[in-house]
Design brief:
Length: 249
């Protein structure tokens, strides 16, 4: 079912003490809301975060996982491991994973399959580079990413997918896609999903926007009909800003 979602991607920030401090601030500032609120701390702090938030309305999610269930994959973490500590949602395909760790849509298709096989939900990130936008290839790029990573999924599997459009040129740069640019891609993506599956399925997929969302621009972006929330980086590291983004809905 299509939901309003605000998810904070903490990336490689916050050690254990900082994680606990931010969680304690969030517990007192995040209101009761119909928005699904999620935070993604680093792997080392997931368990403690989960324990601290298990009776709250803030879900603890992971930033990544490996596609295999176990074995000789030094440094990696599987879906089963995440599930065993209570984590039920994972971010996959973030542009930083694509850029710095060579993740391709072919690999991401396997990760998505592994997450779904383990009953997890996925926030799947996609989006174009600056050069691709400048050369007017953004629609084509986004379409290929979705096709290669997700269009093999069954209709039922889509119940576990949330999308996050994150134009790479807007991540951590202070530059935001305009609400119109976000809406244009979100509507395009929903249409592609409707073409591949059907309109009802497409209407049920939550599509988040990510890239320099701040308290000052959130309301306008979330106000667009095909924008169902946000994936927040920098502003998620501050409880007051993250809460203001949630209440902007
Ligand atoms: P940002 O990051 O909000 O710092 O631009 C967004 C993201 O990477 O998800």
């Amino acid at each position: 079912m299509r939901k309003k979602i605000v998810a904070g991607n903490w990336k490689m920030n916050n050690d254990l003490a900082e994680t606990q401090a931010l969680i304690s601030d969030l517990k007192s500032s995040v209101p009761e809301t119909d928005v699904a609120v999620m935070i993604a701390p680093a792997f080392t702090n997931l368990y403690s975060a989960f324990q601290s938030l298990k009776d709250s309305n803030i879900e603890v999610i992971a930033q990544n996982m490996h596609q295999e269930s176990k074995g000789a994959y030094t440094g990696e973490v599987s879906a089963a491991m995440l599930k065993s500590i209570g984590v039920k949602t994972v971010i996959l395909g973030h542009s930083e994973r694509r850029e710095y760790f060579g993740e391709t849509d072919e690999l991401l298709a396997k990760k998505v399959d592994a997450a779904i096989a383990n009953g997890m939900k996925v926030i799947f990130c996609f989006g174009e580079l600056l050069e691709e936008r400048k050369s007017d290839k953004h629609f084509e790029v986004v379409k290929t990413q979705l096709k290669d990573a997700l269009f093999h999924l069954s209709e039922t599997a889509w119940e576990s997918i949330v999308l996050a459009y994150e134009p790479v040129w807007a991540i951590g740069t202070g530059e935001t896609a305009s609400p119109e640019q976000a809406q244009e891609i979100h509507a395009f993506v929903r249409n592609e999903i409707a073409d591949q599956y059907d309109q009802a399925l497409a209407d049920n997929v939550s599509i988040l926007y990510g890239g320099s969302v701040k308290p000052g621009n959130a309301a306008e972006i979330f106000g667009k009909p095909d924008v169902d929330g946000g994936l927040i980086g920098g502003a998620a590291l501050n409880a007051a800003d993250f809460t203001a983004i949630i209440t902007a809905f």
